[in-house]
Amino acid sequence: MTGGRAAPAADPLTLDDLEDRARAVLASEVYDFVAGGSGHESTLGANRAAFDRCHLVPRVLSGTAAADTATTLLGAPASMPVAVAPMAFHSLVHPDGEPAVARAAAAAGVPFTAATLAARPLDELAPDGGALFFQLYWLRDRARTEWLIDEAERLGARALLLTVDVPFMGRRLRDLRNGFAVPAHAAPVNLAAAQHGAGQSVGGHAAAVIDPTLSWSDLEWVRRRTRLPLVLKGVLDPADARRAVDLGADGLVVSNHGGRQLDGAVPSLLALPAIRDEVGDACELLLDSGVRGGTDVLRALALGASGVLLGRPVLWALASGGEPAVTGALELLRTELRAAMALAGAPDVAAAGRLGVRWAPGTNEREA
What we know:
Layout: H1 15-25, H2 28-35, H3 42-53, E1 54-57, E2 71-73, E3 76-78, E4 82-84, H4 97-108, E5 112-114, E6 132-136, H5 142-154, E7 159-163, H6 173-178, H7 202-209, H8 216-225, E8 230-235, H9 238-246, E9 251-254, H10 268-279, E10 284-287, H11 294-302, E11 307-310, H12 312-343, H13 349-352, E12 356-359
Parallel strand pairs: 4-11, 5-6, 6-7, 7-8, 8-9, 9-10, 10-11
Antiparallel strand pairs: 1-12, 2-3
Helix pairs in contact: 1-12, 4-12, 9-10, 11-12
């Protein structure tokens, strides 16, 4: 053993390690696109801070030698209460793009959510043995919106996630300062050819293709149009959650879009308990924005979520080592979750949902 600093571990020990590795290999403007949030990034930081202020109350003498993380999400079997979040432009960070992530998710036994703005055709994103969700933006081109719904059904998607918090893209200052534009190799091929947006800014492209007038009446149309379980992604207000359920939503994703839309919005984790109180058991609740480890997943379960969507860490893994690194990241997350559950005295996912939490002083108890 030589003196000086120890060499980095051959395998990442946390999901945060993956971000460090990805930053070392990505162009700075691509790293900023993935890592950044909107405005002054106050919500981006608040998402993580909320997890750090949420303290679990472990149970003892439970006899839990090993925890079982298996569950179902939106009717799909999952090895743990985690699905890969919908994210645009995977090819920005690695040439294998979305198909590599879809295969890794299938290998890890978790659902993969294909995005409207994927850089690869949808029929490449339904790997054998893997559960597929599909995320839908409400497009100005209604015929293309219908085609996307039909494709999701044809490919055996288990749920349709309608994103409702993006009438237009939030003002992302890192991208504006970098003059970031969508390169041709990452353009969203599932839109009509004239709408691919290569060479446009992300905000400019979104403004050209996303219809900002999405309303509750459109939700009713989507509900009638598809036989898939319908999930609204981007809900933070309990009244909106109640109305969505009343109009036939099967699930909700409590989300502030990873801090990339309204800067200053409530952290998703703080919004979760009030929404669970409002809807009760009437629909399934997922959570995203800020999840960075197994203990975070356990916190979300304890606060009423059925599971979480994992976003940026998946792209960091893809950037740092392709498909094998994504598989490894998901296995690392399951290892962390299994350990956290056992230490908390929760032998299974249902027991995890019965754990108590305490909030650090200064947390808004009305939200939490």
